[in-house]
């Protein structure tokens, strides 16, 4: 009898703690767009400090144990601080980092090291334009920096959100509003869209077009591992009775399903480019149509307050928000179309890009302003439509906010790149470009970028392990920082280890 009572009490305690965790992430209203921008700005400011260290002092060449420690503390530690100890003062953190960058820049440069480590360019580097295999596309340093930072911040937040030290205004909102984690999921999709533009650009450079059927089959093969991960996550969450926020995606849906269904639908929508001139136009058209349907039909009320009586209604958030994420993905593809090619498109700045940094900066700045203006007129109550952002719906304001913010981040990283590492843009051959790329990019960020999805999966597994082994809601600030530091160190160690041994895990 006593054993039975003990088991009953233990189960009741477990259920009450599970409910406490679900309440901890429910009914949140988020924070201001400005504060989120201040936190996101930490990444390009860190890139500035890292670039000053490298360009002026060749601090990370050769890459020593000390270099790795500083690399980790800058590119991972600063982001961790921005969402924990400095979460109430992200501007102060940015000022401190900028002050450090100015101080390092004031130190006389290490000219002997710079001459030894800077890639040597041919005498006619300024006058020739490199094209041809593999000269159609390039992996630019600022894209590695952008995608690596996005992945690191995402991995930090998915565990940090379970601790009280992480501000509730940074966690995902219930229905209306903006938050850092809402920006994170959209940024993940936008970043995937940038990468997805590579095969399209290669096809155009080769003067060929893949038939729809072949595109679909290729996209389905790419989707299957993601859908399998979605099923594994679903079974593990239900089997382990893990705390979950149903209104985030639904009863059975999760983010892996959203990622998995994107490639086939992108393959289908690519046929619409015969009518719509660009991926940006296609993204905007899809977002507008979806918003009109939300406002002119009962769909919005169905998603927000409808009963969960069948498979569709149980997962309505994930199913219908997919259209917003698809629009974000297409907008990311449009960015990839002008940041990845080497040669300037004859149509001009907004029609294509080049390895010439000024053209790239102008193009990125123009699109950042366009997306920001669209977001302003969509959300402003005085001069615009006054529609509120909703990540749960993935409505048009959410799409525009994510795209505008990420476009601005890409621009910021591109600006840092252009200022400190112009040698990359003057490269005449693959070897020279590779040397310039290695000089201009953090080893930690390259490692996260190389095996991003595998590291994200590992982060999810470690997050589950931490939550199953400790009551995160009852952990103090010092212990929380210890756990998060150890967690990020483990992820970074695995990522850099895979990179050192030249291992790429494709999922």
UniProtKB/TrEMBL annotation:
Transmembrane segments: 36-53, 65-85, 91-111, 252-269, 276-294, 322-345, 357-378, 398-425, 452-470, 476-501
Pathway listed: Glycolipid biosynthesis; glycosylphosphatidylinositol-anchor biosynthesis
Entry's Gene Ontology BP terms: GPI anchor biosynthetic process; protein localization to plasma membrane
GO cellular component: endoplasmic reticulum membrane
Major subcellular site: endoplasmic reticulum
One annotated GO molecular function: glucosaminyl-phosphatidylinositol O-acyltransferase activity
Topology of this chain in the membrane: Multi-pass membrane protein
Top-rank lineage group of the source organism: Eukaryota
Keyword Nucleotidyltransferase attached: no
Keywords: Acyltransferase, Endoplasmic reticulum, GPI-anchor biosynthesis, Membrane, Transferase, Transmembrane, Transmembrane helix
E.C. number: 2.3.-.-
Compartment(s) where it occurs, according to its Swiss-Prot or TrEMBL record: Endoplasmic reticulum membrane
Family designation: Belongs to the PIGW family.
Role according to the record: Probable acetyltransferase, which acetylates the inositol ring of phosphatidylinositol during biosynthesis of GPI-anchor.
Protein name, UniProt field: GPI-anchored wall transfer protein
The species this protein was found in: Trichocladium antarcticum
Lineage, top ranks: Eukaryota, Fungi, Dikarya, Ascomycota, Pezizomycotina
């Amino acid at each position: 009898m006593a054993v039975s009572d003990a088991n009953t009490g233990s189960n009741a305690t477990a259920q009450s703690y599970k409910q406490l965790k679900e309440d901890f992430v429910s009914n949140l209203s988020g924070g201001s767009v400005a504060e989120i921008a201040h936190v996101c700005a930490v990444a390009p400011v860190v890139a500035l400090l890292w670039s000053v260290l490298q360009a002026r002092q060749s601090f990370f060449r050769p890459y020593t144990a000390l270099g790795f420690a500083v690399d980790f503390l800058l590119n991972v530690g600063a982001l961790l601080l921005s969402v924990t100890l400095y979460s109430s003062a992200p501007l102060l953190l940015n000022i401190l980092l900028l002050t450090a960058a100015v101080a390092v820049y004031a130190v006389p440069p290490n000219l002997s090291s710079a001459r030894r480590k800077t890639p040597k360019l041919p005498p006619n580097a300024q006058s020739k334009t490199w094209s041809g295999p593999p000269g159609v596309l390039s992996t630019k340093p600022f894209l590695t920096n952008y995608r690596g930072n996005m992945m690191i911040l995402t991995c930090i937040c998915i565990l940090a959100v379970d601790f009280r030290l992480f501000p509730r205004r940074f966690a995902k909102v219930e229905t209306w509003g903006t938050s850092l984690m809402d920006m994170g999921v959209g940024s993940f999709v936008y970043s995937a869209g940038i990468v997805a533009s590579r095969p399209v650009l290669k096809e155009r450079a080769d003067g060929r077009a893949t038939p729809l059927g072949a595109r679909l089959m290729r996209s389905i093969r790419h989707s299957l591992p993601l859908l399998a991960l979605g099923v594994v996550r679903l079974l593990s969450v239900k089997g382990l009775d893990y705390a979950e926020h149903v209104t985030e995606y639904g009863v059975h849906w999760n983010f892996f399903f959203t990622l998995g269904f994107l490639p086939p639908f992108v393959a289908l929508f690519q046929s619409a480019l015969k009518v719509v001139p660009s991926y940006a136009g296609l993204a905007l058209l899809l977002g507008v149509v979806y918003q009109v349907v939300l406002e002119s039909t009962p769909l919005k009320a169905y998603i927000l307050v409808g009963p969960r009586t069948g498979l569709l209604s149980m997962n309505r958030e994930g199913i219908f928000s997919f259209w917003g994420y698809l629009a974000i993905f297409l907008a990311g593809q449009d960015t990839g179309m002008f940041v990845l090619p080497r040669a300037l498109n004859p149509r001009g700045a907004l029609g294509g890009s080049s390895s010439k940094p000024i053209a790239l900066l102008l193009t990125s700045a123009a699109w950042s302003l366009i997306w920001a203006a669209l977001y302003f007129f969509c959300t402003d109550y005085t001069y615009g439509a006054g529609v509120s952002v909703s990540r749960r719906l993935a409505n048009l304001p959410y799409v525009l906010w994510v795209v505008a913010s990420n476009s601005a981040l890409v621009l910021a990283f591109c600006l840092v790149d252009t200022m400190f590492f112009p040698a990359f843009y003057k490269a005449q051959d693959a070897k020279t470009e590779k040397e310039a790329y290695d000089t201009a990019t953090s080893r930690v960020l390259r490692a996260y970028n190389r095996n991003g999805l595998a590291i994200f999966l590992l982060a999810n597994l470690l997050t589950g392990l931490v939550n199953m082994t400790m009551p995160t809601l009852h952990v103090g600030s010092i212990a929380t920082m210890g756990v998060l530091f150890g967690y990020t160190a483990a992820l970074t160690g695995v990522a850099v280890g895979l990179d050192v041994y030249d291992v790429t895990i494709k999922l």
